[in-house]
Amino acid sequence: MTKAPNYAQWSLEPYCIGMKLRALRTQKRLTLSRLAAETGLSTALLSKLETDRMIPTLPTLATICRVYGVGMSHFFSEPDSHVISITRKAHLQAGGRGVEVAKSVPLSSPRSASGILAEMVEVPTAGSDALADVYSRDICGLVYVIDGRLQLDAGGLHEVLETGDCVFIETRMPVVWSAGGKMPCRVLVVRPAKSS
Length: 196
Prior knowledge:
By secondary structure, this protein is an alpha+beta fold. It has 2 domains: 7-76, Orthogonal Bundle (434 Repressor (Amino-terminal Domain)); 89-192, Jelly Rolls, CATH 2.60.120.10. The chain has helices spanning 7-12, 17-27, 32-39, 43-50, 58-68, 73-76, 89-92; strands at 103-106, 116-123, 139-147, 150-154, 157-161, 166-171, 175-179, 185-192. The strands form 2 sheets. Strands 1-2-8-3-6 form a 5-stranded antiparallel β-sheet, with no helix packed on it. A 3-stranded antiparallel β-sheet has the order 5-4-7, with no helix packed on it.
């Protein structure tokens, strides 16, 4: 039976204290027993701290800081930038059949300040009535074909990209893309965010 985290564990979780303790020990090439000898703390206690099974008291953390030569702020400073955006496989799989439109699943965080947008787009076949955002101008980005075939038409160029193919596009001309076959095509699109 898993024990629910208490408020202290929950509130300290974003600081990753255990992971930072282990990283410092690894960087200094110390074993737990060597750190125990330096700090006067037991190896069992140090192990519990590194694996987040126990929260260090401030005096314990101060003792460890002294050995590592870092301040307490090393463990409690807010990260400048930390964005992880996860898209589950279930969100990437196509839904039911109906009017076929290009379906887009954002892969980057909407709050990301990196200036890069990534999305997985399911491109419908060329015979579809509605192709969402397929005719565009001022395009710059990378397109990677995840599965299917992608028909790409731009400036007199007519290409069919197969699964695993990749294209970098930087153009001011209209670009038309559609699935090159009877089945939709899935592509990964990475492009710069539009500046406001």
